[in-house]
Design a protein that fits this description.
Layout: E1 7-10, H1 15-27, E2 31-35, H2 43-48, E3 56-58, E4 64-65, H3 68-78, H4 89-111, H5 121-141, H6 152-167, H7 169-173, H8 178-188, H9 191-196, E5 210-212
Parallel strand pairs: 1-2
Antiparallel strand pairs: 1-3, 2-5, 3-4
Helix pairs in contact: 1-3, 1-6, 4-5, 4-6, 5-8
């Protein structure tokens, strides 16, 4: 393991893994990154977390974090130099729960309608859009979801809005969500996003590990 660092199993495009990497980058907490393929997960990851979904963070004391929000909170407990946790906790919790619950439900059935019996993509897109309108209203009042600076909620939610937008980018860009669209575009153009989306080779046992974030 690289310098005896915690090990992060990650998949570059997964929004759950993305938000974990965002929090680790913001905190400055280094990890040994193991990039995996979701269709061919390494046995070391499955042994650490039989749930076998990314991200998985294996800590130095043998503890394992299997949920992206837990990884985010752990990283920010090490250091929160940008004050991601300073915003209104009630509002942050509401927005993240809305994202991880109903929004993700409709996003999956919009993007992958053929995987869900009876799912009609346009209907789920319409339901997800109602939630995006709520976010647009928040962003009409502030630069970020919970105030004048970025918070835990922004970076927990942005990867999923990105996934929604990319499902049909022309349709997304045609909607009357100027604040939401500007918020997403600012994120996509940021150095932070570019850094966490760096490409790493697929990891297998015996391969060297990459240190994340890079310095």
């Amino acid at each position: 393991m690289t310098l005896d660092l915690p090990i992060l199993y990650s998949f570059r495009r997964c929004p759950y893994a993305m938000r974990a990497r965002l929090a680790l980058a913001a905190s400055g907490q280094s990890v040994a990154l193991r990039e995996v393929l979701l269709r061919d997960k390494p046995p070391e990851m499955i042994e650490a977390s039989p749930k076998a979904t990314v991200p998985v963070l294996v800590l130095g004391d043998g503890g394992v974090l299997e949920e992206s929000l837990d990884v985010m909170n752990w990283a920010l407990a090490q250091a929160d130099p940008e004050g991601w946790l300073d915003a209104d906790g009630v509002l942050m919790d509401r927005l993240v729960a809305q994202n991880d619950g109903p929004f993700k439900h409709h996003l999956d059935r919009y993007k992958y309608a053929n995987r869900y019996e009876g799912a009609v993509a346009e209907q789920h897109r319409a339901e997800a859009s109602k939630i995006l309108l709520d976010l647009d209203a928040c962003l009409a009042e502030n630069v970020w979801l919970c105030g004048s600076k970025a918070s835990f909620a922004d970076y927990a939610i942005l990867p999923f809005v990105r996934q929604f937008a990319n499902t049909d980018r022309a349709w997304f860009d045609a909607q009357d969500w100027p604040h939401l669209q500007g918020w997403l575009e600012g994120f996509l153009a940021s150095d932070r996003f570019k850094a966490v989306m760096n490409k790493y080779p697929r990891w297998s046992a015996g391969d060297p590990e990459s240190t994340f974030p890079t310095t």
